[in-house]
């Protein structure tokens, strides 16, 4: 869309007819994308952005770099929510090439294959699966019954996705109006699942707002796990049942999270970290190869000592 037309939908004055191809974060935007700044802690990122335009409050307008157009508004996050719909793809494509299916792949009855999708060789897609538009599935992958892979998502080779799992459902993103009404932020990214990944039954992995939610090679995910939008699960990590990752959580390689453990959003966990069952991670863990437990999180050995002292109080 033209930038001036986008601005017009928000009642913002702008006469530039630059072509805008999509939305992105401050640091990842290019000269054909639009971005936003809501939280002042990202002002340094604003000064480095290469976006064509940025939704920004008046107090930060002077920090917008030369070559980037400032779209000044009172509520940049809310404005982003309104325009995200303009860039949302169709829910279902009715035109386009039929799905390409590789050699020796078995497609069972009652499977939906979307337009523009590609399924590799030696795969098995079981009954009731929904493979959306523009989906890619690698070789030797097994999709069990009633799995849903939303449009634009990618699944690698030698992977297994068990029954009832949903790949690419919308991330939980909403902006508040002053009257309390929630405005949907359309999730226009996707999910990328690597090679040699096994995902259990009834898991949900949300698509990204921008770019991708990423599950790297060799990951093992138990049943009933939820991974929110824009998360990254590093190579060889293990997530046990009922783990929950809030948005933009980054797990580095070989992180193990025990049952019912969880994270708050926008944090990072160091490689080879173990989070014990029911552990609550509320801040980034920077030191690798350590075990943590409890809520709020603490080193496992300290948590054990604390539990021992509490037990003594009850005698």
UniProtKB/TrEMBL annotation:
One GO biological process term is: lipid A biosynthetic process
Q: What is its EC number?
A: 2.3.1.191
A GO molecular function assigned to this protein is: UDP-3-O-[(3R)-3-hydroxyacyl]-glucosamine N-acyltransferase activity
Q: What keywords were assigned to this record? A: Acyltransferase, Lipid A biosynthesis, Lipid biosynthesis, Lipid metabolism, Repeat, Transferase
* Membrane-spanning intervals of the chain: none
Entry GO CC: membrane
* Catalytic-site annotation from UniProt: 229 (proton acceptor)
Q: Which reaction does it catalyse?
A: a UDP-3-O-[(3R)-3-hydroxyacyl]-alpha-D-glucosamine + a (3R)-hydroxyacyl-[ACP] = a UDP-2-N,3-O-bis[(3R)-3-hydroxyacyl]-alpha-D-glucosamine + holo-[ACP] + H(+)
SUPFAM superfamilies per record: Trimeric LpxA-like enzymes
Top-level class of the enzyme under EC nomenclature: transferase
Positions of the UDP-3-O-[3-hydroxymyristoyl] glucosamine N-acyltransferase non-repeat region domain: 17-86
**Pathway, per Swiss-Prot/TrEMBL?**
Bacterial outer membrane biogenesis; LPS lipid A biosynthesis
* Acyltransferase found in the keyword field: yes
Q: What is the annotated quaternary arrangement, including any partners?
A: Homotrimer.
Reported function: Catalyzes the N-acylation of UDP-3-O-acylglucosamine using 3-hydroxyacyl-ACP as the acyl donor. Is involved in the biosynthesis of lipid A, a phosphorylated glycolipid that anchors the lipopolysaccharide to the outer membrane of the cell.
Q: Which family does it belong to?
A: Belongs to the transferase hexapeptide repeat family. LpxD subfamily.
| Family annotation (NCBIfam families) | lipid_A_lpxD, PRK00892.1
Protein name (record): UDP-3-O-acylglucosamine N-acyltransferase
What is the native source organism of this protein?
Arcobacter arenosus
Gene encoding this polypeptide? lpxD
């Amino acid at each position: 869309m033209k930038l001036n037309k986008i601005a017009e939908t928000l009642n913002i004055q702008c006469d530039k007819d630059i072509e805008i191809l999509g939305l992105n974060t401050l640091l990842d935007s290019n000269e054909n994308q639009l971005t936003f700044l809501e939280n002042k802690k990202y002002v340094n990122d604003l000064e480095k952005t290469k976006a064509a335009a940025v939704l920004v409050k008046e107090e930060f307008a002077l920090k917008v770099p030369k070559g980037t157009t400032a779209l000044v508004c009172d509520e940049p996050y809310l404005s982003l929510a309104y325009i995200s719909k303009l860039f949302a793809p169709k829910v279902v494509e009715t035109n386009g090439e039929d799905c390409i299916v590789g050699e020796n792949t078995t497609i069972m009855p009652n499977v939906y294959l979307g337009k523009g999708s590609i399924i590799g060789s030696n795969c098995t897609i079981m009954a009731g699966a929904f493979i959306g538009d523009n989906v890619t599935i690698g070789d030797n992958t097994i999709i069990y019954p009633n799995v849903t892979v939303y449009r634009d998502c990618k699944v690698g080779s030698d992977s297994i996705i068990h029954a009832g799992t949903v790949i690419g459902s919308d991330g939980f993103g909403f902006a508040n109006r002053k009257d309390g009404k929630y405005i949907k932020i359309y999730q226009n990214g996707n999910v990328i699942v690597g090679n040699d990944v096994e995902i259990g039954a009834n898991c949900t992995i949300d698509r990204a707002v921008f770019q991708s939610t990423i599950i790297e090679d060799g990951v093992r995910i138990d049943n009933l796990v939820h991974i929110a939008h824009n998360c990254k699960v590093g190579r060889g990590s293990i997530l046990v049942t009922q783990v929950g990752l809030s948005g933009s959580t980054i797990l580095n390689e070989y992180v193990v999270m025990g049952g019912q453990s969880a994270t708050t959003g926008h944090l990072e966990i160091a490689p080879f970290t173990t989070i014990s069952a029911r552990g609550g991670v509320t801040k980034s863990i920077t030191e690798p190869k350590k075990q943590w437990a409890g809520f709020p999180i603490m080193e496992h050995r300290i948590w054990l000592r604390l539990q021992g002292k509490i037990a003594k109080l009850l005698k």
